[in-house]
Amino acid sequence: METLYNKHRILISQVNLNIVREMMHTVAWDKQLVAIRGSRGVGKTTLMRQYIKLHYGTKAGEALYCVMDSIYFTNHSLLDLAERFHMMGGKHLFLDEVHKYPTWSKEVKEIIDLWPDMKVTFTGSSLIQILNADADLSRRVLSYTMPGLSFREYLHFYKGIDIPTYSLQEILSDADGICDVVCQKCNPQAQFEEYLQVGYYPFYDGNKIEYYSRIENVVSFIIDQEMTQFCGVDTAYTRKLKAMMLYLSDNIPYEVNIAKLSSYLEINKSTVLSYLASMQRAELLHLIYTDNKSVTKMQKPDKIYIQNPNMLCTLASQLNIGTLRECFVVNQLSYKHTVEYGKEQGDFKVDGKITFEVGGKDKSFEQIANLPNSYILADAMEYPIGKKLPLWIVGLLY
Description:
The chain is an alpha/beta fold. The chain contains 14 helices and twelve strands. The strands form three sheets. Strands 2-3-4-1-5 form a five-stranded parallel beta sheet. The protein has a five-stranded mixed beta sheet with strand order 8-9-10-11-12, covered by helices on one side. A two-stranded antiparallel sheet has the order 6-7. Helix 3 (about 80-85) runs parallel beside helix 4 (about 105-115), helix 8 (about 190-200) packs across helix 13 and helix 11 (about 260-265) crosses helix 12 (about 270-280). The mean pLDDT is about 95.
């Protein structure tokens, strides 16, 4: 126990409070059971440690921070730790990377049953199944998903530029006013071009080679470790999943041909579809369908996108600017909105009622001229022209 208290002090004292993400203020930290899920590398650990330092200080006492793959748990159970912590006056247990502790769900359930005055906050992979865990925590846990940095957060995180968040409706109704606010503070197009390459993960330090190497490590870890643990992927197939990522990064966002993909990977079609669904859950891909409401388990997606622009820049051997633009739009909109494939009528339909066509600054309205509630998101623009909006503006949603 003393070992964990010492580690708590060291780890919490090291965390930097200069920049705190907006999510800090949206999580209901005072609830009894809170989950923060997300892909590796998006900043879950930093967020948790920052909250502890801000509200409890660096010394373990009422709060205790534990990394769940700590050697301590090789001969101590989480339940035993919680009992001793409670006896010593502990009030809030913070469990980082809870998925690395095999019986986490059963023991967390028992902890909150035995000591209802104790709060438990945990982080975990985007693949952990709270609904289907051994102990059903779904009715008791307040769950959040943490994305990577939005374009707005990137401006704050890396450039010290504060821009408020805007709803999609605010963006569509007052794009001119919003662009005025942003352009008074920075050159958004120049910043946006950098964001597409190095702005999504909060660990860029100026070295692009090292940054892309870390993203490759994130992809490999998710496939080699998390997908084999949570998705039942045989370790013999992990190389094929990596090959699929590389193939898709050079061939999206064209119409999906499952037969061609199956042949390329030398695995059957149903396995390809199963893998694609798991890779979306793992936040490696975005699968886009014409109608999300009618999607069946083994239905092929209409389009497939790498999960975020920086991952695409890392994996693609020949980067296509059109692919990069659409990847950005899908990534930023999907966090708060439903994105569907627009087919012949625009690139995307959002929330079933808004149509977006994505392209360069010379993109015309030809494809969506007769559609109500339709807009163009165009690259290389700083101000809107009618219903043609700057592409970067959808990066202000969170």
